[in-house]
Design goal:
Layout (H helix, E strand, L loop, with lengths): L12 E8 L3 H9 L1 H7 L6 E7 L6 E7 L5 E12 L3 E6 L6 E8 L5 E8 L3 H32 L8
Antiparallel strand pairs: 1-7, 2-3, 3-4, 4-5, 5-6, 6-7
């Protein structure tokens, strides 16, 4: 069930940040192009199968995460906001329920600050995830940085305004 959570409740949020050596446009592409996103989304050792990726407000994102332990994790989300190249927001429709808001702040031509905010409907729901989410979000950022390096090598320099 989608919900709207204000950022006035820090006890209900998990916030992870990372500054990466890539343009805002390149970082946004890594988050919004399903062919790129599926390469890095999730903690270390995970792979993804995207069934639906309809990037528009109200559009669905349905995918399966395949864990290194051979477990599979079904995910369904609905996109709430896409503001290129500054902000993405979606609601997770499978448990655990939470909203994600990601912001991208250009810090020059080849540096971007990412703020990844997970907003939960209650403190109890947040606390169930908080114990491990920080480390897993860092693994996710590590994988994103590796993908950005591949993108920089593979793309013409003008593609993402490096």
């Amino acid at each position: 069930m989608p919900f709207d959570q204000s950022s006035d409740a820090p006890d209900c949020e998990i916030v992870s940040t990372r500054t990466v050596a890539a343009s805002n446009e390149m970082v946004f592409a890594a988050w919004t192009n399903p062919d790129l996103l599926q390469n890095w989304w999730g903690p270390a050792g995970f792979t993804n199968t995207f069934e639906v990726f309809d990037l528009r407000p109200g559009g669905k994102w349905r995918f399966t995460m395949h864990g290194p332990d051979k477990g599979t994790y079904q995910n369904e989300c609905v996109f709430m906001e896409i503001t290129k190249p500054m902000r993405l927001a979606w609601n997770r429709l499978t448990k655990p329920l939470f909203q994600v808001v990601v912001t991208f702040e250009a810090l020059g031509t080849n540096k971007t600050k990412i703020v990844f905010r997970q907003i939960f409907p209650s403190v109890a729901a947040c606390n169930k995830i908080k114990a491990f989410a920080g480390d897993k979000n860092e693994e996710n950022f590590d994988r994103l940085e590796a993908e950005l390096e591949k993108m920089a090598l593979a793309m013409p320099s003008s593609t993402y305004k490096k």
